[in-house]
Structure formats: C-alpha cells, structure tokens
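Z., the sequence and structure:
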Amino acid sequence: MEHIRREIPQGIIEGSCDPKFLSIADEFERNFRDRAEVGASVCVHHEGRTVVDLWGGMARPSENVPWTRDTVSIVFSCTKGAVAICAHVLASRGLLDIDAPVAEYWPEFAAHGKEDATVRMMLDHSVGVPVCREPVKPGGCYDFDYMTGLLAAQQPYWKPGTRNGYHMVNFGWTVGEIVRRVSGRSLGTFFHEEIARPLGIDFWIGLPDEHEARVAPVIPFVPSPTDGLGDFVLALLSDPQSIQALSLLNVGGFDPNSRAAHAAEIGGGGGISNARGLAGLYAPLANGGTLGEAKLVDQKQLARMGEVSMATHEDATLLLPTRFALGFMKSMDNRRRAKGDKDSVLLSSAAFGHVGAGGSIGFADPREGLSFGYSMNRMGNGLMLNERGQSLVDAAYRAIGFASNESGVRER
C-alpha cells in the first residue's frame, strides 16, 4: 500500500492506496478540485484485503475542522442495506422465512388490505406503504413504536406485491420491525451486536452520545437556476398529498443534523458511518458471506441477496425505472431516458448495495470479490449517484479490468 498525502483547496487528502488502484485516488482528488466536494471518504476492499482507504477535505468548513480518519456522517439510505443485511442474517440462521406472510411475525401489520403481504414485499419495496397517509406528529420519526403503529394501521397505496414504489424512510420501520420481532432486540441493537461489532466496523443505527463529536454535519444541496426540475420534484411541488411530497415532507420534521436524528434507530435513512464502515459492511458479502471469524450468511442466502426481485419502468415513488434485489439496489441505467429524471447507479450485473441521498454508496460484487464505500457531507443533485460517487465506482471497476458501462452494467 502506498501512503497518500495530497494538498487540495479544501485541505488535505490522506490515507493509503494500492498502486493498482491509484486512479481512485486521482478521481477522489478531482472531486475536490472540480466537483465541489467538501469532505469525504472512499474505501475499497478487493479479494479479501483493503486496497483503498482515503479521506480528506473539511468536516465542518465553517469551523475549519478537517475530515479525519475517524470522521463519520449520516449515510441516509445506505442504511437500508444494513437493515436488509440484518434480515438476511436472520434468514440464513433459519429464523426468518423471507417468503412467509408478514402475519407470522407482525400480525398487526397484516390488516386493512395488507393481509397477504410477505416479508419479500417489504424488502423489494412492493408492500404498498411507501409513505404515511396520516400526518406524522412532530418528532414522530424518532419514535420507532409510533411509526410502526402508523404503518400497521394504514391501508396500502396498492395491493401488496402488484407494483413497487421506493419506501424512502418507511423501509426502516417495515423491515426493521420484522428484525425486532424475530430477534427480540431493537434494530440498532441487533445490527450492532450481530454485524457491526463482529466486523469491527464504525457503523451505527442509533449513535451513542460519546461519538457525536465525530459527526460531519450534512451540507444540503442547493440547486442552481439552470438546474431543470425532474418528474419527482415536479410531482412534489404540484401535489402536497402525492407520494413524492409525503415521502419528504411527512416524516415528523426529520433533521439530519440533530442529535435526536443521530440517536434514533431510523433504518430507512439515519445510519452513521463512513466509507470504511460501508466497505467493511459489504466485505463479507464480497467473499462468500464470511470475513475472518465473522460469518453473516451462507452461500445459499448470499445467492438470493443479489438476485433482482422487483423491477419496473416507473417506480411509484421515484417516477423512473428502478431495479431492486431483496433490500438492495441493482445497477440502474436511466441515462438515455427521453425525458424525466435520468438518475442512475452503474454497477456490474452481480453487484448489489445501496445509494444514500446526496450520493453516498456501499455495495458488494461477489463475483469480483469487491466491496466499496463512499461517504461525504455535501449532498449532490439527483435521486441516485452523482458524478462524484460514480467516478469513483468507475475507477474501481477499471482497476480490475472492466472497460465499459454502455449496456447499463459494468462489463469487461
């Protein structure tokens, strides 16, 4: 590994990088110089070893606080991947049947038109409760019991399983409640005790107070006057009762920079980590389900995790084509859409993981023995990856011999 120290306008990039993967370091530097990065980290594991571990820029630019090796930030929907892994760990242990009716684990949910819902439908965003119909009380998103109670009492937007719509925040309460019912532990406790601690990763669903000082605050994306409005934003602005509007505005006042948000177990988008934590989370899944002494899933469960479970030409929430495995995003190529949002995430056909709002990502590619993480504090435009994260993913794939993504997936 080569030690990296590069000066950038925002401070310093530090860390280490295998010479074979130096193009990732180059793109990481370009993100700061040319793509308005403020503070960020990137980490890559390949064939059982860390080949990239870089961080740099500013964690709190207004206070001149640098992004250090141990800086963490909210990784938004990358948390969904962590929640999904909890469910798959339980399934691999024979404690959860992913194709079983939800009624077997959470009887209160299987009512009001949701009687035939299955766990699979919760994992692939087809269960029909992408948002809350009833106004969420102030601070409701920080109260796990309150949110699961709302969803159990709600009628679905469609018959479960008949279509899909991204459950932007609600995924953490649907799948998270299944984890809690089966394991007997809260979502954050189960994740910490059975996944994060055995793997030795700095990833939290419910951050203890003693780690709060390490959190880099989110810097919101500010659109320019020349940025066009996509279908999602147009729907949000035109109809306050639309799924799009409710997905962002009816969550009880979620503030990603508050201590309350960091402390709460918000599995749909409240996880706290960094690139090292994201790459470390997926490292076992890139290596047969096991890393060192930590076994997450068996080979059979790992094979199920990466298969497409639901795909559509128009996601009921995002209003663009999406492809989901059981709790994970697959490669999605919307670059050539004639109109509407063109948001994409370009991975190999074998890869699965999750993007977070603003552009963070964690994923595993079991075929290539690759796991990847990227986190940052300044959010970018769009609903999927933006140029910063995709450039790093592309560089990682080029480093192991992939040449093109013209087909919509990375290919050799």
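The mean pLDDT is 96. The two ends are 25 Å apart (CA to CA).

Let me know what you think.
H.
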